[in-house]
Write a structure and sequence with these properties.
4 copies of one chain form a homotetramer. The first copy, chain A, is an alpha+beta fold and 315 residues long. Chain A is 45% helix and 15% strand.
């Protein structure tokens, strides 16, 4: 990741501003506020604002339950209780805003999380930066044979090199033709003073999906956790997981108690169906039960055994 | 409005907490942070947290439009432009959280604004306070004869007194029977040690709709303005308008530039239909045009004339 | 439940209308379309419109996954897969609309599900019906001693009678005073020709929370299931569960395959935390593990044991 | 637009299915149900399902306002009233579902309308079709000099040809390299049996933004109108307007009365600020008022004059 001089200056300015506030704050998050945390080859995530901390959740819950929460006498106990029982609204009382630079094909996955506020850089108004994502060799995976949306083995050296050459060559050529159509370079230089350029809103269609875009993305804590549960999961595409992993760190700095409950109940937890429950019960009793008797499909059986790490039962 | 000793202490504690932050802030809003602003007879509004200020809107817009916003060289000019052209997303970048005490029948109107986060005091868990709304005599209006949802003249002295007696008597009696069913007073005293009380989730159904409830209500600036446009309007019920008016003041302290644009383009503005436009054009040209020729219904004609303060044209 | 003559006629008219459509339909749901299914003493639920059926979910999923779904060769297998893996968007492709009559205190719980469209009867415009909910004696439960939001034992005969008398007396008196203030009976009769009535938007505040209201409520299948998972659960208040149970029946008639997957994976299923998983693994291995060693609180331990029906482990 | 044999057959099958329903229907919309309405060079819109019609809006409104709506004695009058006064919820009672094929850069604009349900073809699972948008020569506009997001003059012949050559060449080359990386052609043929292909989720990043994608898009009538107001407007990019224009036709067939009110109050209407209102009042009185005295900026002044077609006042 390389910041422009202007960006680096803007971050420095933001980090040196200090004011006194009566609002609750989050000291560890303040430490990294505005900082550009690098992701992939040109991407980053910056926390640019936040509202509330762990105590805000507790406070909202105590307003809801009134004297009814007296019994739960620690904040941490209350947050764990809320998480376990899916009491979602107190977690909506905290808000966070990120500035994110990411490849367009990842932005397209990301935007499907609708409960967030977004301001994206507009290629109708302005020229996109000349930056595109090229995977590292170790991330150039083949299509999985067993899983339609997954990755399989890493490509061999020659084939990997070929893929990278194609990606790089096409991104550079299409970008260069984008400038040609605009009659303007990415730095604002006019190419041919005697020509007028194609409208930006049209020229952008020539760019490839690994071109970087950027946006401000603001959401509440509940929806952030919904996002992270799906996107920090091993089923998620590696490239979006790279963002989610860094965001997990910011979550930990922001609301450490909530983070712990989230890791225990959501990320590390599992769901068991009605049929699955009765199988687990039999296994605990020591009953012999096979996939054939279980009423589950082979796939579902294996998912259940994997969830409880019963490798010998996999078929 | 009377605060309990605990509430007064909590506010004092919150107001005396101070920390340093790198976040942007809003000095005028900090002044009144946590303060209980009285509304109606027992209600209040407290701003308990916020995120962002006028510059956050500008910053988000400049990310979106990139170099494209260079021409608009003042922040105030840009905010006015965004407001005028309904560029809504930059206004979503600011967030505010209120603690509100309000009568249940008003809470029922309020909650219809769905794009907000809410934690309400739960009468399943805890006993509601013994407080109910009684209108001032000057607000005891008769049903409007012309407008199905409006108010007409103020009731005469005798009838007004009668209404207040009924409201007060019924609220007190139903609350007292609520305690009776719970076998517990609002202050926690058990009424009859030999009896068990009815479940709270059931007993509450005996309360009248003017009983006060309270909640934390959090929303972004765009949705706050949508709320205020409808609820600070003269068509809104007086009781909810009382809240909206105080919130308008908090809006002004929080984001003064946005407030100004909001008052000009939304609150003070009007909408004109296609047919209405052609009538206004004729009036400007000095053409004589009557309701009959306009294609408008009498009602719509009058609404148009009132919007432009053309009293002589009312029919 | 008693329908007015007008309502009964309207239902008859709606049920006799028939048209030919190219849209997919749901024959079992058509059977009960518009019918008023009675709930509590005066409430009802009517399915008044719907869009899509099980095949709509499959169709949307196949558009998303393209040729990638070829392997899952049955519709039922695909729907189960989607449910198990929380692929939520295909379930959003179906929509249903209910007409519901329910007590106000239940409406207040219900409306917290924000992702739905609602048109409620407005007591600003019109007079509410003279109908209020009175629980059956077997539902008059005491406050639970162990659970702040639950119910305990059923009240004894005398106390139950007393409670019912209070509820009935207060509802009738407050309604009668509501009419008095309005200077109008519920059937439209003016009480005193020489007086004008209080505005409806004010008079309504005198009504108790068990007064019935009604609304049209429209939501998509995904959000309907989210609603039912919470509200058909045994933690939900009995009165809202009564509605959810009837809605579960309509779900079954509408999308039978989805209903089955929903009952298996959501309603009958359970969630296990990371800590819980490792305890279950030990139990399967035959290891002796006690609450003290588990890292769980007593409450959490018991919840886990109950989820897997391990009664002997309860402490 | 060219449909595959399978698509054409699917449409034929869907159009020949007929069932009897008690639901309200919309005869004109039934006529074109499932039909692929061509847009741009390869795109289309198909209405694939709907719920409700004009009468559903009226019915919901009459439930809300109860006897209060008796006075408005025609359905058309009531719908106009609701539209004029922004009574939004009754319009949410109707729902429509489209199947849409569109270029990715347009899909990216479209998806910003968050209040809709979407199932998009997934390039993680399946290979995208070999189809990309190439503008017609008459749509190849230069960047506007006055408006950062607009289009100016049409490009001259030579330059236009050059742009089209670049767009076509780059799209074809990147698509061909996409196949190369996948080791698979768009029709499923394996290119080299001895090689494994790159994961689809990675290879797709090489495609250009004018590649076509497709999705199911479902929304309620209110949000459809919000979409159309913005996207059928002359400020919208031509390519998305092409879709919005066809959707306007489907709106007309679906809910003709609502369509008429929408065109009058929303599409053909305008908004006037507080300052604007006072200027219009002066103009009606025959007062001489200039931009300088108006308190408006030049831009805002011109927008106001244009809204009322006062060309002589433009400066």
């Amino acid at each position: 990741m390389k910041l422009t001089k202007e960006q680096a200056q803007e971050i420095k300015d933001q980090q040196s501003q200090a004011s006194t506030t009566k609002r609750v704050n989050s000291p560890e998050l303040e430490e990294i506020l505005y900082e550009a945390l690098p992701i992939l080859d040109h991407g980053f995530i910056r926390v640019v604002d936040y509202m509330g901390n762990d105590t805000s959740i507790v406070q909202a819950a105590r307003v809801s339950y009134g004297k009814g929460t007296k019994k739960v006498n620690t904040d941490s106990g209350l947050i764990k209780y809320l998480m376990r029982h899916w009491h979602s609204t107190p977690f909506e009382m905290c808000e966070i805003k990120y500035h994110i630079k990411l490849p367009i094909f990842i932005a397209r996955q990301w935007i499907r999380h609708r409960t967030a506020n977004v301001n994206e850089y507009s290629a109708r108004y302005s020229i996109l930066d000349k930056e595109f994502y090229l995977p590292k060799t170790e991330n150039l995976a083949a299509q999985s044979q067993s899983n339609r949306q997954g990755r399989g083995d890493i490509l061999e050296g020659d084939q990997a090199k070929k893929v990278l050459d194609l990606l790089k060559g096409d991104a550079e050529r299409t970008y260069s033709n984008y400038e040609e159509m605009l009659n303007e370079r990415y730095d604002g230089t006019i190419i041919d003073e005697n020509k007028i350029g194609l409208a930006r809103e049209l020229a952008r269609m020539n760019l490839t999906l690994n071109t970087y875009t950027q946006w401000y993305w603001k959401t509440d804590l509940l929806n952030l956790m919904n996002f992270l549960r799906l996107r920090a999961d091993h089923h998620a595409q590696y490239e979006i997981r790279a963002y989610a992993d860094v965001m997990l760190d910011t979550l930990k700095k922001w609301v450490p108690t909530t983070y712990e409950a989230f890791m225990d109940y959501r990320v590390g937890g599992t769901e068991v169906s009605a049929k699955g429950k009765s199988i687990i019960q039999k296994l605990i009793k020591g009953d012999d039960i096979s996939m054939e008797d279980s009423g589950l499909s082979k796939r579902e059986w294996n998912e259940l055994m994997e969830a409880f790490d019963l490798k010998s039962k996999l078929i």
